[in-house]
UniProtKB/TrEMBL annotation:
Family statement: Belongs to the patatin family.
Source organism superkingdom: Eukaryota
Residues forming the catalytic site: S82 (nucleophile), D239 (proton acceptor)
Highest classification ranks of the organism: Eukaryota, Viridiplantae, Streptophyta, Embryophyta, Tracheophyta
Enzyme nomenclature, EC number: 3.1.1.-
Motif window: DGA/G: 239-241
Cleaved signal peptide residues: 1-22
Domain named PNPLA: residues: 39-252
Function: Lipolytic acyl hydrolase (LAH).
InterPro entries named among the record's database cross-references: Acyl_Trfase/lysoPLipase, PNPLA_dom
Key words, A-Z: Hydrolase, Lipid degradation, Lipid metabolism, Signal
Molecular functions (GO terms): monoacylglycerol lipase activity; phospholipase activity
A Pfam match: Patatin
Protein name: Patatin
Organism: Vigna mungo (Black gram)
Length: 426
């Protein structure tokens, strides 16, 4: 006897699998699930290629489970500072006003950096320096004069244009999932956190994402401050690194304030630090002194952010964030030749991508919060990301299932259980 599946059964099965996949529907809120998930991406200019490369691995692991989905369908919050804020917007903004897909996949983010990095970090006075090169004076005094003139180092025009072109008029309230992007108001001297969670009460924060991105990435000494007005409020913004170069703690705080008592799953990605310079290339050496003289108050905010982030997450927040739910992927031994956040030469960008790929096969490192030394664990970052993908996928299915049962007016508490292999399909 031939076993042909009846057309009806086939149809029903397809419908069911589409339902389980959720038609790439937005992730139902954490109240339907067991966890709140956060993706957090540090600042670091062109070194953003490193976390984007790591994210590409996770994105592909999730797409292998359900090709219709993107990172925004799994994370309740995507948070980023500076270059990480830019990435956050690209991963969370809809491709068009009624699309459920983001503008970019992580792999397209890497392509974005590679294509436009050289234009974003094109020296302002390229022409002048070229002419100087032909001049008769000896190089050193000429260079000193020219260096002092070029603060900030870049005019930011290209970044402004490309950001506006890509993000169009999309506002914070239109993102596919919640975003949390810190920035710093250099006039009022306090951090401004662009967060979907705050929009209910702070409507003036519903800015265009392009303005949010230009704010968080206006790295002092590299790019000019970004000024704009929204809803009658004036913003004079500099880089979110002035508030928190690693935004994980900010994102965790937003979640705890607004989503109740759920266990947190946190993936936090760094942009690489060299063994002896933890601030990495946050500041451009030449412009640093001049800027420091003018802005000491701003600078002091930035100094302590990253180690203290680990410290607070492991101590104050340990109840919300068990150790096993916190994955930090960072290159703690970046080759000093790759430290500059503005070296967008093709060779350096290729090297940064390789750092990201190599990180996948390295051991997971956990910071010892007594001496702030990274301690290797016995699994690789890729293995940890695979496990995270399993958890995120199971969480998404669980929420979709509970939500659909609620729609059919069946009580969902206590009737559905996630077994350890995820949700069984039957
Ligand atoms: C966004 O839309 C463009 C044009 O419609 C398409 O080429 C691109 O693949 C889309 N990107 C994503 C991530 O879906
Ligand atoms: C987002 O905000 C804009 C401007 O305030 C408003 O016109 C729009 O309806 C809002 N959209 C959503 C999805 O809330």
């Amino acid at each position: 006897m031939k076993h042909t599946m009846s057309p009806f059964l086939l149809f029903a099965l397809m419908l069911f699998s589409q339902f389980m996949a959720g038609f790439n529907t937005p992730l139902p809120p954490p109240s339907y699930g067991d966890h709140v998930s956060i993706l957090s991406i540090d600042g670091g200019g062109i070194r953003g290629i490193i976390p984007a490369t790591v994210l590409d691995y996770l994105d592909k692991a999730l797409k292998a489970k359900d090709p219709t989905t993107s990172l925004a369908h799994y994370f309740d919050v995507i948070s980023g500072t500076s270059t990480g804020g830019l990435m956050t917007a690209m991963l969370a903004a809809p491709n068009s006003s009624n699309s459920n897909h983001p503008i970019f996949t992580p792999s397209e983010v890497v392509q974005f950096y590679k294509k436009y990095g050289p234009d974003i970090f094109e020296p302002r006075f390229a022409l002048i320096s070229l002419l100087k090169g032909f001049g008769s004076c000896d190089a050193k005094p000429c260079r000193a004069w020219y260096d002092l003139e070029k603060c900030p180092k870049y005019d930011g025009e290209f970044l402004r244009d490309i950001t506006r072109k890509i993000l169009k008029d999309t506002r914070l309230n239109q993102t596919l999932t919640n975003v949390v992007i810190p920035s710093f108001d250099e006039r009022k001297l306090y951090p401004v956190i662009f967060s979907n969670f705050k929009l209910k009460t702070e409507t003036y924060l519903n800015a265009k994402l392009s303005d949010v991105c230009l704010s968080t990435s206006a790295a002092p000494t590299y790019l000019p401050p970004h000024q704009f007005e929204n809803d009658g409020v004036q913003f004079d913004m500099v880089d979110g690194a002035m508030a928190a170069n690693n935004p994980a703690l900010v994102a965790v705080s937003e979640v705890i304030q607004h989503t109740g008592n759920k266990e947190i799953l946190l993936l936090s990605l760094g942009t690489g630090i060299t063994a002896n310079n933890k601030l990495g290339g946050i500041f451009d050496g030449v412009c640093q002194l001049q800027w420091l003289l003018n802005s000491y108050g701003v600078f002091s905010e930035a100094l302590y952010s990253t180690d203290m982030t680990h410290y607070y997450l492991a101590t104050v927040f340990s109840g919300f964030l068990p150790q096993d739910n916190y994955l930090r992927i960072e290159e703690y031994n970046l080759d000093p030749s790759m430290e500059d956040m503005d070296d967008a030469s093709p060779k350096n960008m290729d090297k940064l991508e390789k750092v990201g790929k190599n990180l996948l096969s390295q051991s997971v490192s956990r910071i010892n919060i007594n001496n702030f030394v990274p301690v290797p664990l016995d699994q690789t970052n890729a293995q940890a990301l695979d496990r995270l993908a399993d958890k995120l996928y199971a969480e998404r299915l669980l929420r979709l299932k509970r939500k659909s049962m609620e729609k059919r007016r069946r009580p969902f508490i206590g009737t559905v259980e996630a077994n350890s292999n995820g949700i069984s399909a039957a």
